């Protein structure tokens, strides 16, 4: 029995929606799990994977698969897992959530588990810690994560695409979270709540110019700019290039711009801004993915 999983990259927060909003992108990782009948679990982490991912005990796909099997009361041995990694590691594009979800879906598919979507999101979030990325990767589209209530998703019109600047540097998610304050002023809370509402309305009504204000943030980006001084310049460069709105992707350091027209000018804006900051990197163009992870099972 063999199962193939395709899991999309995700951009969380989108400015004001800290730990609440996330968007699925076309860029995807693939995970294949196959029963071998042999003892143990073997893994092929894929081209370009860091050395530690060759060790099953340190590979998040394998760890998620093993944890899900234990939760299901199913044996984990006798499986080979192969990965194809297209989502950059440690760049704020949901690579960890994609890995945890991929391993979890291998386990549920190979064992015919009856878990529903919300149960999978909760399980993956417990492993990886980011329900916004997990929900967007599983459900697709633009997701809203609401603690104590089911995560929901909405479709994004096809004319909106994402341009993502991916710098060569890495930014540790744990460090990027530690610098964010645990409490905010009433004014800042009102600012971000209003921007979240404005963002949802902009997508629902195709009011793309409003995204310029809807993606403004007062919670996490100002604090993270101390770790990543180029971020405000990159956001400004994207807007100068014609982006509807721009923000840090997740904990960064990738920066996402939402675009309703030709993306080339936004890419050029990113690269000019990066040049002013002495920052090396690349930009990609991705459609929003209005469907989430896909599972294909063959006997």
Task: Summarize the structure in words.
The chain is an alpha+beta fold and 299 residues long. It has 2 domains: 2-154, Ribosomal Protein S5, domain 2 (2-Layer Sandwich), CATH 3.30.230.10; 161-287, GHMP kinase, C-terminal domain (Alpha-Beta Plaits, 2-Layer Sandwich). The chain is 36% helix and 25% strand. The chain has helices at residues 60-72, 95-110, 117-128, 131-139, 173-178, 186-205, 211-214, 221-224, 230-240, 264-276; strands at 2-13, 17-35, 41-44, 79-84, 142-144, 152-154, 161-167, 245-248, 255-259, 281-287, 294-298. Strands 1, 2, 3, 4, 5, 6 and 11 form a 7-stranded mixed sheet that branches. Strand 1 and strand 2 form a beta hairpin. Helix 2 (95-110) packs across helix 4, helix 3 (117-128) runs antiparallel to helix 4 and helix 9 (230-240) packs antiparallel against helix 10. It is globular, with a radius of gyration of 19 Å.
Give the gist of this structure.
This protein is an alpha+beta fold. The chain is 36% helix and 25% strand. It has two domains: 2-154, 2-Layer Sandwich (Ribosomal Protein S5, domain 2); 161-287, GHMP kinase, C-terminal domain (Alpha-Beta Plaits).
């Amino acid at each position: 029995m063999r199962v193939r999983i395709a899991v999309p990259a995700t951009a969380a927060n989108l400015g004001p929606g800290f730990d609440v909003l996330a968007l699925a992108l076309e860029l995807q990782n693939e995970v294949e799990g196959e029963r071998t009948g042999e003892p143990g679990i073997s893994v092929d982490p894929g081209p370009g994977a860091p050395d530690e991912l060759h060790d099953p005990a340190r590979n998040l796909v394998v760890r998620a698969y093993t944890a899900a099997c234990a939760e299901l009361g199913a044996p984990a041995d006798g499986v080979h897992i192969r990965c194809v990694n297209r989502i950059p590691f440690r760049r704020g594009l949901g690579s960890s959530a994609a890995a945890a979800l991929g391993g979890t879906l291998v386990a549920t598919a190979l064992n015919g588990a009856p878990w529903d979507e919300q149960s999978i999101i909760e399980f993956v979030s417990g492993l990886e810690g980011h329900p916004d990325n997990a929900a967007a990767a599983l459900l697709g589209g633009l997701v809203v994560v609401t603690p104590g209530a089911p995560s929901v998703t909405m479709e994004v019109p096809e004319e909106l695409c994402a341009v993502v600047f991916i710098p060569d540097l890495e930014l540790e998610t744990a460090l990027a979270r530690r610098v964010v304050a645990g409490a905010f002023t009433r004014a800042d809370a009102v600012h971000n709540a209003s921007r979240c509402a404005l963002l949802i309305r902009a997508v629902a009504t195709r009011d793309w110019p409003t995204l310029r204000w809807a993606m403004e943030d007062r919670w996490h980006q100002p604090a993270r700019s101390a770790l990543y001084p180029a971020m405000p310049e990159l956001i400004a460069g994207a807007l100068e290039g014609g982006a509807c709105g721009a923000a840090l992707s997740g904990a960064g350091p990738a920066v996402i711009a939402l675009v309703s027209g030709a993306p080339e000018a936004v890419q050029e804006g990113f690269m000019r801004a990066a040049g002013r900051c002495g920052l090396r990197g690349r930009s990609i163009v991705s459609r929003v993915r209005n469907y989430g992870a896909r599972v294909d099972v063959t006997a």
